[in-house]
Structures are given as C-alpha cells and as structure tokens.
Design goal:
Largest interface: A-B, 48 and 43 residues
Strand content of chain A: 35-45%
Radius of gyration of chain B: 21 Å
Strand order of the largest sheet of chain A: 1-32-31-30
Distance between the termini of chain B: 37 Å
Order of helices and strands of chain B: HHHHHEEHHHHH
Helix content of chain B: 40-55%
Number of helices of chain B: 10
Oligomer: heterodimer
Shape of chain A: globular
Number of helices of chain A: 2
Shape of chain B: elongated
Structural class of chain A: mainly beta
Largest sheet of chain B: 2 strands, antiparallel
Structural class of chain B: mainly alpha
Radius of gyration of chain A: 24 Å
Strand content of chain B: under 5%
Largest sheet of chain A: 4 strands, antiparallel
Chain lengths: ~475, ~290
C-alpha cells in the first residue's frame, strides 16, 4: 500500500495537467504537442462537450479513464519507464480515445438522450485486454480496449495494401509473418445493455464475482450479467404506485467490495440502505438503514436539498462506507446504522449562502468522494477548484487547489484557507471571492499509490505526493 | 457568483425562482431531471408554508387592528338608544373583516411564529406544542368560518348557510363600562375574535387548525389529505379578492397548482382551468402537457 500522507500540505508535488479537449480532432488550430504537459493553446475556447463527467482508475492504477459530456472516453496510461523513478510516477499519457456514446432521440417520449458519460467502471483484468463499462443516462456499454503491436505481412493472395493478387501470377507460397508495428490501441464495444431504464442512470457497479454488475437510476436498480444483454433483473424498485407520493429517489448505488450478495444505495433523503440479495429476489426491503437524525436547529428552506446524498463509496476493506452530501462527508461503520462514525465538514461556510447557491443552481452540484488505498484518507472536491483531504487517523484536513496559475510542475501545493467571516488573514480567500463556476466534482485515488486525479471543469490534474 | 450580501430569504421570491426552475427544466436537454425537480418541489413546499403562514399573520394583524378600531368607535359613538343598530353595524364590519380575508386560522400561535425570522421555515412538526395537537381531529374547526361551503373536502363541516357566519354581539356594560364580545351560533371561536377579550381563549382551537393544515400540507404520503389540501389551497386562493392580494394572486394561484404535491409538476389541463388569473394561464401554457409518459 502507498505511503500515508504524513504531512498534509506537502502532499502533492508533481503537478501534471492536461487540458481535455482533444487537439487535432476538433481543434481549430493544432497545438504544438498534444500529449505531454504542453500548454493547451485553446484552453479559453473549451467547449461544453469537454466537461469532464467522470474519472476512474483501473484496479492496478496503471490506467486512468475519463468520460466527458460529449460522450467520449479518454484513457491515460502510466508511463512504465518512469515507474522506477518515484518522482515521475504520476506521468500519464493518452492511451486511447473513443466515442462511447452518441446523442440519441427517444421518439416515443420526444426526449433527447444526452451522450454525457455518467460513470465508468473498470472490470478486473482477466487477459491481455482491458474492459470497462461506461454509461450515459440510458445505455451501458462494455468496451474492450486491446493493444495491437504486430501486424501480419506476406499474404499469398493479397498485396500488402490489401488488393487481391491475380492467382495466375502466384508462383510460390510463403507463410505470413507478424512484424512489429507502432502500438495501436483499439477500443471496441463488446456489449450494449440498453432499454432497461426508464429514468436516468446515475450509478453502475461491478460485483466482486466479476460476472454481474448493477445499474441504478432514480427509482430502480437492475442486476445484469456481463454476458447477457437482452435481460436484466430488477432488484430494487422504489417507484410509488402514485407518483404524487414520490418523496425520494435513488442517488447512488454500489456493490460491496468483497461480499457479492451485498450492495448499498443512497437516497435523496440522506438515507443509505444496505441490501442482501440472498434474502429475496426483490430487495425493496433493506437489511440495514443508515440514517442520521436531522439537527432541527439547522432547518431551512433547503434542508432537503443539502441532505441529499450525491455519492456513496465502500472503503477498500469493506468495513466502512462514505457518503457525500452537499456540505459534508460522512463515514459510516456498516455495523452501526444510527449515525456516522465520522463527519467532515467540506465547506461549512456555504451554509449561510444556500439561498444564492440555490438561485445559481450550484446547490444541485453532485460531488463525489473517494478513499485512498489503505482507507486512511478520504478526498472530495469543492468550489474555486479546491479539493479537500481528510486524514482520518491523524484528524487533520487540508484544502488544496488545482489550477494552472497556482502550481507548477514539481511544486508543492500550498494549502488553502477560506475565510468564513471576520478579518481575512493574508493568503486567505474570502467566501465571496470564491468562483462557483470552478468546481471539482470528480476525483479519484490510485488504488495503491498516493497518486490522485482531480478533474476541474475541463482539465484533468494528476498529482502525487512528495518524495523525500 | 454569490452576492456579497446574502439574499433575503423571502418565501415569495423563492417560490418564483423555484417555479422558474421547474419551467426551465422542461426545455433542458436530456429530459426532465426527476431528482432535481423533486428537490425543487421541496423548496417550493417549504417556501409555500412560510408564505401562507406570513399571509395569515398579516391578515390576523389587520383583523386585530380593525377590531380594535371597531371597538374604539363603539366606545366613542355609543348612544344607549342606538345600541342595537350599532351592534348590527359592528357585526357587519366584523363579518366583512374576517370574511373578506379568508383567514383566521392562525390565532396567536401563528402570530407568534410569524414574528420569527423568515429564514427558518418551520415544518409543522416544529411548531410549538403541535405534537399532541396534530393527531386530534376537530373537523368543525378545520375550515375558516368564512369559507364558502366546500362540497368535496371531508374536513369541511361548515354549513352552507351563510347567515351562520360570525354571529358576534358586542355589548357595553353601562354600569361597569366593560366591552364584551359574545359569540353565538356556529361561530368558530377565533374567527371574529376580539383581540382584547377572546385572543387567549381562541388559541387552542386555532393552533389545532393551523397545525392540521400544516400537517396535511407537508405530509406527502397521505394522498387523501393531499387532495384535501390541494382543494383547500385552491379555494383559498380563489377567495383572495382583497385588493392587497391582487399583485400576489399570481403567486397564490401558482401555489395552488403545486399544492397538489409532486403531481403539480405534471399539472393537467383541468387544474389550469380552475385558476383565476388569465396571466397565469398564459405563462403556464407549457404545463398543459404531461411531462414524461412513465
């Protein structure tokens, strides 16, 4: 497992940013170099399609996948040559790019289906190829990403360029040989899981049995087999008989990392339900209900909104789970349903700003959260391109910023401080000068190492911790 | 960007903002976002509760003022020979005061609550002393005495006979010079309550009624209560004929749509036709179609 973050503040050293809009494909002017840390000249021209919507490391951390609003998936690969040089281990280069989803139109309902990638989940690697699931609002796809570094040469009946030879001119036979070629990474869709969700898919989660996975929308959760696309099993359905009675929706769902019969789903009311698939086919009845009573002194117009859970993640050891609501991160012990064991305030200074955040829609932002490899630190994003880390063991937290202006490669990130009120100290930022258009919704932590990926609106930053 | 001054948490503007969000969500790419609209409907509901509470408080305050003035006029103009005529006039005024405003569910409980900062919308369960009152059914107190009879609501026990409204007699004891207000007939106590005399006595039933209304409004799971709440909300809104409310009639009428809970977001043509204001109808033309066929 990676080193603990001993000193928050000297956490991240190597700044490596990459702007996301793919130069050379849709760009108006080709930039000088498109992959290794070069300034993207068109940064100020970024398109809405470039907004990063999901970030996920694979199980070894060698690959990092991102999805965007335009339906594309870009996979980065860790530079292998640098693996032995610790200070460069966060060098990631573009490995593969493909269009996963296209915009669709549902003619029956006169609805456009967005191509935005909501979630990507990697399958554990079984052979040379890599597999991942990517989903938009309605359809999940299984992609195979494989490398090709050899090609056959010397066919008897075909020329090298593919034209067929005249059989009359063939005088000898030879065995075609495989010759090396430039590495080519191909992505091909192997399965399409469609037409199973009436509402918008918010989560997918691969089971530890590596055969099944779940997909969750606002009201239902379906169980799929990775090989079977024409049917799925509905395991949770919270749609009321009368939609007038609707009071809550499902916001996230995840399988337990080790127990293939267990999964959790969170709701817009701030509750988490743990279900056991062995109990019954339909898991509407939960095995455990995790809920913290609301503090009545904090009651406001927006209480329901800020208690809605935007993300739920099991710890790697499977003993805890973490939830993110608008203002806080909570750690729950799976054996205690009455309240979380730890609560971390992400940006409590926003509590007095909820009205404005409601007006500009920021209050609906869905922040994600993640664990580090040994479950000792949790991380989540905030506004002004800030992200927060909470060290559970040492009870320390730090606010860092992902921005080009404020960090150079190999530079230690400086901790940030937001001044909630009163006299603003030097280097502090006042709440009113925070940029709420710069939000970090998606973050990911390398499964073993202290390498993190942080997505601002349209840029991906990869940081690593300081090497002593 | 957020303003340097936190915006005043005004229930009315929150309602407008929320309705605009719901309206805009219909044209958003990707279809209606169920989660977001559900959350907006919660804000709408909270704001509506506060808004109605504030309105009642205002009405109650106005009522109190008018009744104080009435009593003062009585004292000044009192002529022993004209006692009956005066009383009839006072009755007329008092009835006009409380029937014109469609109010009087509050009592002093509401008044007390309204005085608190509007920033905190109290749910019914947070209202002081409401826990024990919540469950107690008092159908005769359910509706304002000034409401026209409702044929639908199961809560409405009030007879259609309008002459049973507010039978109040104000009597001046010439010996002790004490003014007494006597209620008789079907009177709901706090309807024409004289703040000087009856305020305290009216607290308990008023509180009950207020709380039941609040409970029904916020309890989404009870469909029958909800239907009652919706119909009640609609009638209240249509009775808002007082000049002070014309500029808020749009809000009230819009509230009546969303008083029907989440289905308000899927409002049907029939609902729209019951709304008084044509302007509201025009602006909500987009709502006449069902949003999503489930």
């Amino acid at each position: 497992m990676g080193r603990n973050l001993k000193v928050p503040g000297q956490v991240c050293l190597h700044h490596y940013h990459r702007s996301f809009g793919l130069p050379g494909i849709r760009a108006q002017q080709p930039p000088s170099g498109h992959d290794t840390g070069t300034e993207h000249r068109l940064r100020h021209h970024w398109r809405p399609a470039d907004i990063i919507s999901t970030v996920e490391f694979n199980h070894t951390g060698e690959l990092l996948a991102t999805g965007d609003k335009g339906g594309r998936v870009v996979i980065f690969q860790q530079e292998i040559e640098n693996k032995n040089q610790p200070q460069f281990r966060s060098e990631y280069n573009v490995y593969s790019t493909f269009q996963s989803h296209e915009p669709e139109f549902d003619y029956l309902k006169s609805l456009e289906i967005e191509e935005k990638i909501n979630k990507i989940r990697w399958l554990p690697q079984k052979n040379a190829a890599q597999f991942l699931l990517s989903t938009n609002d309605k359809t999940i796809k299984l992609w195979k990403i494989s490398e090709r570094d050899k090609r056959p040469e010397g066919y008897n009946l075909k020329e090298d360029d593919g034209r067929f030879k005249d059989p009359n001119n063939i005088t000898s036979l030879r065995v075609p040989v495989l010759i090396p070629m430039d590495l080519m990474v191909e992505a091909s869709p192997r399965r399409v899981f469609a037409n199973a969700h009436t509402y918008h898919i918010n989560s997918i989660s691969v089971n530890s049995d590596n055969e099944t996975y779940l997909s969750a929308d606002d009201l239902r959760i379906n169980l799929w087999h990775l090989e079977i696309t024409d049917r799925s099993f509905n395991i949770v359905d919270i749609k009321p008989a009368n939609m007038e009675e609707l009071t809550e929706v499902i916001t996230a769902a995840e399988f337990h990392p080790h127990q293939c019969n267990t999964f959790v789903y969170s709701s817009s009311k701030g509750t988490i339900r743990l279900c056991d698939m062995r109990v019954s086919a339909l898991c509407d009845k939960h095995s455990k209900l995790f809920e913290e009573p609301e503090d009545p002194s904090n009651r406001s117009f927006f209480s329901e909104i800020i208690s809605s859970i935007s993300d739920v993640k099991f710890s790697h050891n499977g003993r805890y789970m973490m939830t993110r609501d608008y203002l806080s991160v909570k750690i729950w012990d799976l054996n205690m349903e009455s309240r979380p064991v730890e609560t971390y305030q992400v940006h409590e200074y926003l509590r007095s700003k909820l009205c404005s955040l409601y007006e500009n829609d920021c209050i609906f932002d869905k922040f994600e959260c993640c664990w580090n490899g040994n479950d000792s630190v949790v991380m989540t994003g905030s506004y002004n391109n800030f992200f927060r880390m909470f060290d559970r063991g040492q009870r320390r937290d730090v606010t860092l910023e992902a921005s080009r202006e404020n960090s150079k490669p190999m530079q230690v990130l400086k901790p940030r401080k937001v001044c909630a009120g009163g006299k603003r100290k030097k280097d502090e930022i006042s709440v009113d000068s925070l940029d709420f258009n710069k939000k970090i919704l998606h973050t990911a932590w390398h499964p073993q190492d202290n390498i993190i990926a942080v997505a601002t609106t349209n840029n991906l930053y990869i940081f690593q911790d300081k090497v002593n | 960007m957020i303003n340097t001054m936190e915006c005043a948490v005004d229930a009315q503007s929150l309602i407008s903002i929320s309705l605009m969000k719901i309206h805009n969500s219909r044209t958003q790419r990707g279809g209606i976002k169920l989660h977001k609209n559900l959350l907006v409907s919660y804000v709408l509901r909270n704001a509506r509760q506060v808004y109605i509470k504030e309105k009642y408080a205002e009405i109650y305050r106005m009522q109190q003022y008018e009744e104080v003035m009435t009593v003062c006029n009585e004292i000044q103009e009192l002529n022993p020979l004209d006692l009956d005529a005066e009383d009839a006039d006072d009755e007329e005024q008092a009835r006009a005061a409380c029937c014109g405003e469609e109010a009087s569910l509050c009592g002093s409980a509401c008044h007390r609550d309204a005085a608190q900062p509007a920033a905190h919308a109290r749910t019914a369960s947070a209202l002081p002393g409401c826990e024990e009152d919540c469950k107690e059914p008092e159908p005769s107190y359910y509706r304002s005495c000034c409401m026209e009879a409702s044929p639908v609501s199961h809560c409405d026990q009030f007879p259609a006979n309008s002459s049973a409204h507010c039978n109040k007699t104000t009597v001046l004891d010439l010996d002790t010079h004490v003014v007494t207000t006597v209620e008789n007939g079907y009177l709901h106590q706090d309807c024409c309550c004289d703040a000087l005399q009856c305020g305290q006595g009216a607290q308990s039933p008023a509180k009950k009624r207020k709380v039941e209304f609040g409970c029904c409004v916020s309890d989404v799971e009870e469909v029958s209560d909800f239907t009652a709440a919706r119909k009640r909300a609609k009638r209240e809104d249509c009775s808002y004929s007082h000049p002070d409310y014309t500029d808020t009639s749009n809000i009230s009428n819009l509230i009546s749509i969303f008083g029907s809970g989440f289905s308000g977001l899927l409002s049907r043509q029939a609902d729209l036709e019951q709304i008084c204001s044509k302007q509201v109808l025009a602006s909500l033309g987009a709502w006449t179609r069902a949003i999503v066929a489930f």
